[in-house]
Specification:
Blueprint (H helix, E strand, L loop, with lengths): L26 E4 L18 H5 L7 E4 L2 E3 L3 E2 L12 E5 L5 E3 L6 E6 L3 E6 L2 E3 L6 E6 L7 E6 L2 E3 L6 E4 L11 E3 L2 E3 L10 E3 L5 E3 L2 E3 L6 E3 L13 E3 L2 E3 L9 E6 L5 E3 L2 E3 L3 E6 L6 E3 L2 E3 L5 E5 L11 E3 L2 E3 L4 E5 L5 E3 L10 E3 L4 E4 L40
Parallel strand pairs: 1-2, 2-5, 3-6, 4-7, 5-8, 6-9, 7-10, 8-11, 9-12, 10-13, 11-14, 12-15, 13-16, 14-17, 15-18, 16-19, 17-20, 18-21, 19-22, 20-23, 21-24, 22-25, 23-26, 24-27, 25-28, 26-29, 27-30, 28-31, 29-32
Antiparallel strand pairs: 33-34
């Protein structure tokens, strides 16, 4: 596990497939003590990451030895051909690798026809850049797809931690995966978020998203109908203490798109827990634990911006201890049932310490309904353990 990673989530297989096997499997190495005139072996590594990029072909891996690298990775990362033959850029096992460039817009930018690239076990430190830590976007050269960023820390960006930008008619099915990330302390204004997702079919899973200036996660594409920012999956995350800049601070915001889903998330100490707004349609909010959010509501459907929010499903959630309303519903066709609301104490193990497991005797135990979308809980435990589903992100077990 990455030394800075704050979550110990076990990834449920229903969302993310098996990690990629590799066909060619050539491996090159980079070290601050290496030389770019060397062969890039473990004994004689390259000195710079960019030199390593020049050798990579589909199926290859570049392993980075411990150190702080002042390199910005801007558009020159080579692509893989499939998840059977990706390009993998990873920290050397057990070592801490920090990417901290100075004076550039981004730490990592993929803008064009990049695909099947995996980044593992990095610290993306945006302290010295001028914009965001990670930026993935369409361009005239094409649209990125199948980018996977795992077990990494993303911090200190002036604007967004991670932004996936989509232009009209581009990135229709980006299918990026953001897995087990610690995304924190990004942004300076309420418009700066931990994640800002504008494209379709992305997965945010197992992340700890906290102390960002604006929202923890914002899934939204300005000025479109539901063709973009649709069919995204947000599951098994911790979203807490966002809204540092005041004025905003939604833990998870699903806006505009069609068919977005959020389940098994722990959402606490934000201004609003989960928001489904601005014309979003057919969104599903399932088996989340939403606690002590101090703004308008634990869950808010509709209310702000243009467009009517339609056909939202709220089911099997625990919504407790939020300062105003449990659910503020301004949408059309909202279905809300089998939720444990503020009037009933769910008996968390230790909510002040962020431990939202259930004690024996909790009214949330066996109070839910079976959901085909939610086959495991926050910890990867199969649902149900005994009898009916439990409410919230965590199934009860001794």
């Amino acid at each position: 596990m990455h030394p800075f990673l704050a979550t110990s989530l076990v990834l449920p297989a229903l969302v993310v497939g098996a990690l990629p096997s590799q066909s060619r499997q050539a491996t090159y190495y980079v070290s601050p003590s290496g030389s770019d005139q060397g062969p890039g072996t473990l004994a004689r590594p390259f000195r710079t990451i960019h030199r390593g990029f020049t050798e990579l072909r589909p199926g290859d891996t570049l392993r980075i030895r411990a150190g702080t690298y002042p390199e910005a990775l801007l558009d020159d990362v080579p692509s893989g051909s499939s998840w059977s033959a990706p390009v993998t850029i990873a920290a050397y096992q057990g070592e801490t690798v920090t990417l901290r460039p100075s004076g550039t817009q981004f730490v990592l930018r993929l803008r064009g026809n990049h695909r099947y690239i995996a980044f593992n076990d990095f610290v993306f430190d945006a302290t010295l850049v001028t914009d965001s830590a990670i930026y993935i976007s369409s361009s005239k050269n094409g649209s990125p797809d199948h980018i996977r960023i795992s077990r990494s820390e993303v911090k200190n960006a002036p604007h967004m931690g991670i932004i996936v930008e989509a232009e009209a008619r581009r990135q229709a099915q980006a299918r990026h995966e953001f897995l087990n990330l610690n995304v924190h302390d990004n942004g300076t204004t309420p418009l700066d978020h931990g994640f800002y997702i504008q494209s379709n079919y992305n997965v945010i899973q197992g992340c700890d998203i906290h102390h960002n200036a604006g929202n923890g996660i914002q899934v939204y594409k300005k000025g479109t109908a539901s063709g973009n920012a649709s069919h995204n999956t947000v599951c098994g995350n911790k979203a807490h203490d966002n809204g540092r800049a005041k004025g905003r601070g939604v833990g998870i915001g699903l806006y505009v798109g069609d068919g977005n889903i959020a389940f098994n998330n722990l959402v606490w100490n934000n201004q609003i827990g989960i928001a489904v707004e601005i014309g979003a349609s057919n969104s599903k909010i399932l088996n989340n634990t939403i606690y002590n959010n101090n703004g308008d509501a634990g869950i808010r459907v509709g209310y702000t911006g243009p467009g009517v929010t339609t056909n939202t499903t709220l089911r099997n959630n625990i919504i407790y201890g939020n300062q105003r309303r449990d659910i503020a519903d301004f949408g059309t066709g909202t279905v809300a049932d089998h939720n444990l609301l503020n009037r009933t104490n769910p008996l968390f193990v230790n909510s002040k310490a962020g431990d939202f497991r259930l004690q024996s005797g909790s009214p949330a135990i066996k109070a839910g309904v079976a959901l085909r979308e939610v086959l495991v809980d926050f910890d990867g435990v199969k649902r149900p353990r005994a009898g009916a589903y439990d409410l919230g992100a965590c199934e009860y077990h001794k």
